[in-house]
Each structure stands twice: as C-alpha cells, then as structure tokens.
Design a protein that fits this description.
Layout: E1 5-10, H1 20-31, E2 37-44, E3 65-69, H2 80-85, H3 90-100, H4 115-126, E4 133-138, H5 142-151, E5 158-162, H6 177-195, E6 199-202, H7 207-213, E7 219-221, H8 228-232, E8 243-249, H9 258-270, E9 278-284, E10 298-301, H10 306-315, E11 318-319, H11 347-351
Helix pairs in contact: 4-5, 5-6
Length: 356
C-alpha cells in the first residue's frame, strides 16, 4: 500500500447528520489524511437523528470516500420524552409509550438494528484487502458491538474511539430494577467488545472506564478540543443592548436549564432593571419542564447549521453548557487547554501491521 495507510472508519453520526456527536468524527476524517492516513467512512444513509444540516456535506473533503449503509432502526428525529409530551391526551400518551417500549429492549441501544446491515457491509469492504485498520467511534455503542463482530470475521486490526463513557453515564437511574438488569447485560457486552479491540482512543472522561475494563489495552487519550482554523474566520457580533446567554444543542437525560432560569428569576426580582438587559437564547432544544419561569427573557429557536451555531456562540456574552457530574466525570468533561496527555490521533493506527 506504499507509505500511506488506509482505514475504514465506521461512525453513526456524520454529515448531513448534525450535532455535537458529529464534530470529533468529521475532524478525524479531515485531519488524518494530512498525517498520511487515507480515510473511507462507513455511515448510515439516514441516521434519523434530531437534526440534519444538508450544507454540512460540503465539510466532507473530496478526498474522503463515504460508503452509506441503510439504517432500519427507530427514528430519533424527536426525542421519546418530547414525543410523549406532545401526544396530547392521556390515552394518546399511553398508546405512544406502548409503541416505544420495544426500543428499551434493544442492546446495547436503540440503534442495534443497524448491525444487520453495517456488519456485512464492513466485512465485504475489509475483505478486499485495501485497508490497514478498522476504526469505530461511539456512541451509539451499537457501533462498538459492530466493531467486535466485524473483527471476528476479518484479520484487520480494530481501533475503537470512545467519545463518551458507556457504563458510567450520568443519565443512568440505577435505583430502578429494570435499569440495573439492562445495565448488567450491557456491562457484559462492553467487556466482550473491549476484549476484541487491538487499541483504543478515548476522551478524558472515558479513560478510567476503559482502563478499568481492560488495563492492558493500548490506549491513547485524545481530549475534546476545538477547530481553531474554523473559529478564526468568525467575527464576533455581540448585541450591545443585552447580556446574552446562549446554548446550542439538546437536553438529554435529566439535563435542564431550570436552576439557571430560577437564578435569573431571582436576580430580576431583586434587580428589576436587569429584565431589559438579560437575554437567554436556546437554539436546538428546550425542555417543557423549564417553561414558565422567565419566558419573557427566553428565546427558543430551532436547530441551525453548524456555521450559524458557531456564530451564535461567538456572539454570546456567556456560552452555556449543561452537564451532570456523572460519578466524577464532570470535572474532565470540558477541554483542558493545558493538557499534556494529547497523543497523535494516528499513533495507534500507524503501529498496526498492514493487512495487505
């Protein structure tokens, strides 16, 4: 294959799918070729995700080959909780809950039906002998299960990238017996997956989990970061008449802006003159449970393309992020500009023996 390596990179979130889960993956596909690693993506034809940005297809470099595989799983164009609340009557909500119930039995997650299509597609490609490695990125962790199944069928090294913890996720309510039972099954599945990996890369807040599952696994820590070149072209245009707080994204699990909104309500109660100054801008999602607190100060807007979201963040006086501590992982969630543990994203791939 010459001096350059070639990888098959399997991901569930990739343009035109939009959102934070896309960014790490698209940066891998854009930057690895600069390091001598050619990338071919294996992604769904339609991930049926919350938001799409057709314009983001232009962010895929022309030198990146994209293979698209059918996805026949459930749609998440609207979060289940939002769908239930929007169902109207009590009978309608109960009926919708019943229809959504089967999704809860999928392991490891609701995207598991993709395994039937993505595994054979990946095996066919890898058996051509054109690739030096298979790379997967999760979540959804169905992709890690796919990686384990694929690795068992081909003699090609597998590197798994973990963008989030799998077993120590802050959204888990382990006080419920059904959640504990499913979590135990998923833990066995996670150990099985990790046992088949040749190497892995993780963000900071997933490192302890992966090392605990398999201490001997070659592991590179690649913290969350930012694309400075992309930000360099954005000119900040703040609203001089307001102090703007902005959030772009969705509220998963029990994440909520409620505490912030209650604090703002108390602030404007004590200092009424600030009511005409503070503006809270939510672009993407906003939970119904948070409505009614300071609605006159809140702007709720639909999802926007990636470039517009960056502009909104740049224009804000305060950019918001909402997260749970998650068994101590919250302290590692935000990028650390002083981190010295950043490994080259191609390190483990370049060490893999060629499959050719």
């Amino acid at each position: 294959m010459g001096d350059r390596l070639r990888i098959l990179f399997c991901a569930f979130y990739y343009p035109p799918t939009s959102g934070g889960g896309v960014e790490r993956t698209i940066q891998f596909s854009r930057r690895l070729p600069e390091l001598g690693i050619d990338v071919e993506m294996l992604v769904p034809e339609d991930a049926k995700w919350l938001a799409e940005d057709p314009g983001s297809l232009d962010r895929i470099p022309p030198y990146v080959v994209v293979h698209r595989v059918p996805y026949r799983g459930p749609s998440l164009r609207q979060l289940p909780g939002d769908r239930i609340r929007a169902a109207g009557s009590t009978l309608g909500r109960l009926a919708l809950r019943a229809r959504l119930a089967p999704q809860r039995v999928f392991l490891p997650d609701a995207n598991a039906p993709w395994l039937a299509d993505v595994v054979p597609a990946a095996v066919r490609l890898l058996k051509t002998g054109r690739y030096d490695a298979l790379v997967t990125t999760t979540p959804p962790h169905t992709v890690a299960v796919a990686g384990r199944m694929i690795r068992a069928r081909v003699d090609v090294p597998w590197i798994a990238d973990w963008r989030d913890p799998w077993l120590t996720h802050a959204d888990l309510d382990l006080s419920r017996p059904d959640v504990r039972a499913k979590h135990a099954a998923i833990e066995r599945m996670a150990r099985w997956c990790v046992g088949g990996m040749d190497a892995a890369s993780v963000v900071d807040h997933a490192e302890d989990e992966v090392r605990g599952l398999r201490p001997d696994l070659p592991l590179a820590v690649i913290p969350n970061g930012i694309d400075l070149e992309e930000l360099a072209g954005i000119e900040r245009r703040p609203d001089p008449a307001h102090c703007t707080f902005a959030f772009t994204g969705w509220f998963f699990g029990d994440r909520s802006p409620r505490v912030l909104l209650q604090a703002v309500a108390e602030l404007v109660r004590d200092r009424p003159e600030l009511r005409d100054v503070i503006r809270l801008r939510f672009v993407g999602g906003f939970p119904d449970a948070a409505r009614g607190i300071v609605d006159d100060l809140v702007s709720v807007e639909p999802p926007v393309p990636h470039g517009e979201a960056l502009q909104i963040q740049a224009d804000a006086d305060v950019a918001l992020i909402f997260m749970q501590d998650g068994d101590g992982h919250g302290a590692k969630f935000l990028p650390d500009r002083k981190s010295t543990r950043l490994n080259s994203s191609h390190e483990w791939i370049s060490r893999m023996p060629s499959s050719a």
